């Protein structure tokens, strides 16, 4: 999963960036389907005592957006990723159910 960062009034140190990458590993498996194609754009901003996080991911022709605010940056990031994960699961379930239609088997038709 490719993750790009935009920091508004905030910059991430290399250990912090690595910690952010770890947050996206689990959801990356869900969104990538094993191909490594998913991209996430993370916007980090700091206003007074709040850290705001917005994560945007294009997935199956939908824009998944997770937003969260907290005094701790990584708590806000975890909350945003959890919201994003819930949206991804919901869209994935809709996408799967939309293409699956029960087939009539030949054995059942001949009995009727």
Explain what this protein looks like in three dimensions.
The mean pLDDT is 82. By secondary structure, the chain is α+β, with helices and mostly antiparallel strands. Helix 1 runs parallel beside helix 2. It has a four-stranded mixed beta sheet with strand order 1-2-3-4. It has one domain: Double Stranded RNA Binding Domain, CATH 3.30.160. It contains three helices and four strands.
Task: Give short descriptive properties of this protein.
112 residues; alpha+beta; Double Stranded RNA Binding Domain; 3 helices; 46% helix; 31% strand
State the shape: elongated
**CATH-derived topology:** Double Stranded RNA Binding Domain
Number of domains: 1
User: Mind telling me the C-alpha Rg?
Assistant: 19 Å
CATH homologous superfamily designation: Ribosome hibernation promotion factor-like
Q: Please, what is the average pLDDT? A: 82
Write out the strand line-up for the largest beta sheet, numbering strands in chain order: 1-2-3-4
* Helix/strand order: EHEEEHH
Give unreliable regions as ranges. Answer: none
CATH first level: Alpha Beta
Would you count the extended β strands for me?
Answer: 4
Number of helical regions: 3
- Share of helix, binned: 40-55%
Q: In terms of structural class, how would the helical and strand content be classed?
A: alpha+beta
Offer a quick outline of the entry:
46% of the residues lie in helices and 31% in strands.
Task: Describe the secondary structure blueprint for this structure.
Blueprint: E1 2-8, H1 14-32, E2 39-47, E3 50-59, E4 62-70, H2 73-99, H3 106-111
Parallel strand pairs: 1-2
Antiparallel strand pairs: 2-3, 3-4
Helix pairs in contact: 1-2
